[in-house]
Amino acid sequence: MSEGLCQHCISGVRHKGTPEGKVEKIGGVDCYVATPSGAYDESKVLVVCTGVFGISFIDSQLLADDFARNGYRTVVPDYLNNDPVPEDAFDAPGRYDLSSWLRAHGEDVWKPVMDALVATLKAGGVARIATASVATAIAHPSLLKPEHLERYRDESKAPLLINGCEIDPAFPRDLQAKADEIFKDFAPGYERLYWEGCTHGFAERADFNHSKSKAGKEGAFEATVKFLDRYL
């Protein structure tokens, strides 16, 4: 299994509900799109990058719907090129060969997809784009190293929120503390929250039968919406 990935990437609890968005193509990219029911600022878009199960995973769709209910048009792109980890891997976490899958989904695969999406959104009048991820950057990051954080600090002008958690081999507490050190004087804005009793994947696939897991998912979502309200 590749460094930074763990069984928590393909474990958790499926949630129930009926997705309210729809799948459409944006810049040739299949996207699940959730749109607010009322008036909203059409110059702003939230792009949510899924975990390994892709845009058809109901938890990702319901999460996008929740952001839309808070006033943000939310776009979930298929940056995995219709090749997600199969959902039956959920039933036997730790047995699926994530290493091989990851090698087939490097930057050469996902970056052209994201570039095409962003270019099309901008051409359509979108002026401000926020990115949220259930696996990188905002909630329980994976595959991050200090040099990646340092590059973000040195090159990015976008504020950063990290929802970290207690049980996370992919982003352990020492690296979480290192992130605080790296971003302590980050002018655009930085915030890291720590959710006790939660496991990597909690922001998308929390177990609502466990009070800390439920509180972590709900708290991380609320914090993310407030962060978007402040900066986007």
TrEMBL record:
GO molecular function, one term: hydrolase activity
Pfam families for the chain: DLH
UniProt xrefs under Gene3D superfamilies: alpha/beta hydrolase
Domain Dienelactone hydrolase: 30-92, 134-231
Gene source species: Daedalea quercina L-15889
Name used for this protein in its record: Dienelactone hydrolase domain-containing protein
InterPro entries: AB_hydrolase_fold (IPR029058), Dienelactn_hydro (IPR002925)
